[in-house]
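Bench notes, afternoon.
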Amino acid sequence: MSNQGVSGHAPTGFQYFLYKTWKSLKTPMPYLAFAGIGLWLLTYFLLNEYWKIFPFFKIPGPVEVITEWLSRDPIWGTSLFTEDYYINIWVSCRRVIIGFALATVLGVPLGLFMGWSKKFKDYTFPVLETLRPIPILAWVPLAIVMFSGFETPIIYLATLASFFVTALNTMLGVESIDESYFRAAGCLGSKKRHVFINVVVPGSLPFIFTGLQISIGVAWFSLVAAEMISGDYGLGYMIMASYMVNKYTTMVMAMLTLGLVGWITSAMVRAAGNRMMRWRAKALGQGGV
């Protein structure tokens, strides 16, 4: 029986999203997630405001942060009702999206070819392994020298950090494909380009999307580090600027916003991966355990 709605038409992406959301509400997962966040906030409150345990009492408490966050007339000038708050979020999101997209476009093909061709890997892998351990902060002065303005160096750093993760996970995905698939394709007379398109790319998709989930997180923390040093807007700039003028409540608010936005972007990448990998779930279901 085909996967169709009542009207006989295949479900749209939005209908599928609603269906998955409704199914998830029938499981303990979302409620455990909210319980975990609530437990964390309670612990934060007890350590900071109730017991005042060192060193937690030195930072703004959850009541103070949430009150400022929701205030229409914030004491420190930034809240959900101020324009600059959303400008900083948008600027950081735009930079991450551009850096993540560039890292994906460059890293996935490179990883595919490194995993598929041993000769190509012998040329490129040593270079990658030499550059990869260099901390992203070490690239900051070079990025400022190479590129003018605030925007390009920050995007370059976010792209660079994500690129290594994406390329290496993609390469591992190709290397994880069972050799029998290549032998079977060879016996059937498949040409190299057909093997690449029909075996290498689909077989490495689970590793690619695992790498992309890690990559988006790496893009965020490299971006924030860059914004703290070279930036005029963004959540990283907001955190550092608030620290420099002792606006610690705004600083914690920006950190929590960063975590929330990062979580949402990771969930979006994971949802896209699950959407593209439904064929794999069907194959595993048909194969049994």
